[in-house]
Amino acid sequence: MIRWVLQGILRDKNRSLFPFLVVTAGVALVVFTFGFMEGIFMGMIDSTANLDTGHLRLVNKPFYDEEHLNPMDRALTGQNETRNWLIANSDPKIKWAPRIRWGAIADVPDENGETRSQTPIIGMALDLLSPDSRELERLDLKNSLLDGRLPEAAKEILLGYELARTLDVELEQTITLLGQTFDGGLATDNYTVVGFVRFGVFAMDKKMALIDLADAQDSFYMEDTVTDWLGFLPSHVAYKDYKNFKVALQSRLSDLILHPPKDWAKDDIPIVMSVLDQRNLDNLVNVFEMIKKIFVGIIVLLMVLVLWNAGLLNGIHRYGELGLLLAMGQTHAKLVWLLGIEAFAIGVLGALAGSLIGGGVVYYLQEVGINMGDAFAQTGMMMNDVMRGRVTAESFLLGAGPGIIASVLGSLFASVALFQRSEANLFRELEAG
Fold this sequence. Notes:
Blueprint: H1 2-11, H2 13-53, E1 56-60, H3 61-65, H4 79-89, E2 95-109, E3 115-126, H5 135-138, H6 141-144, E4 145-148, E5 156-160, H7 161-167, E6 174-180, E7 186-197, H8 202-207, E8 208-212, H9 213-219, E9 228-232, H10 242-250, H11 253-258, E10 270-274, H12 281-317, H13 319-327, H14 332-367, E11 370-371, H15 373-376, E12 386-387, H16 393-415, H17 423-432
Parallel strand pairs: 3-8, 5-7
Antiparallel strand pairs: 1-9, 1-10, 2-3, 2-6, 2-9, 4-7, 5-8, 6-7, 11-12
């Protein structure tokens, strides 16, 4: 029967071409839209993780509670011991990197050594100089560098290009950072400006500076101490799985609290968070999921309505054929079942074609992307300048599944009219044709 149905579909284009094109277009639209939305959303999550929070973050709770003040005295000591514990107790997929969040006043002197310009800045210290460090890659600093070079020696600093404009500072000029030390004292140190960076986030471009981790530990008297341990997951890991990694690590924190590194303070309480727990991303995830459901519902409804009407028109032209089948002994129910199988076959073929078309476009966007830097330059969203798609199994399921269902439902709704016509009338229409 299936072979006979397929032969009928291929030989009679009048009854199969239009439903096939509708399903193909609908599935391609869903696959493309979801792949592109998923790529943009995951790009935003990855940018936030790389620039700020990591996909997972281990931080001292007292520091996190007052993070806006950058309380350096609440950072976690025992850097090497903490690193060893994280490697031993977390999933091997997670790559851990130490960072220091710091705040300071940047002072730019004039030719006489007097203050020419001054402004508060926020900063991140990370491993910029080690040859095996992946931090340059995570922040995409080589491509983000607008002018100058990357740090190559100690006490060199990168500034956001808007911050550099505010300070009216030039390359190779020395600036002074005035901040707080780990023990609550005043930290002062000179740094050489070697490059201007565009982070792609307006707030960071206007206030952010980057220095090497070892330099920050020296300037702020934080030997063997960091404020954050950031864990990074491979790009193929879905954001829905972040919670599982967090819960797995959280379950082992009690052992670290009971047997902490010897230099930890008595009231240090490490906590683990995922990127979705920070920067209000959890709410964005909920909105994103709701939009996906609404979008799928609308596309399915539209395809069902179009295919329903197509089935009605197609059925009118096939009344003679259906009457002949009834005259040969087929029942109404079997004919409806036959039409359903035919619609299912058309749906499968359309879903395959739509998946190939939509998936091909998304794959192109995943590999090449679209440069939207100018559109997002003045926003506060942590998004890559290059918008990319993301090929996922979920987008194919959300496209192909509803496409097949819509094809079958449209045919079944249209075939209900078959029960309203008698065998004699159908056969008479065959004679009239």
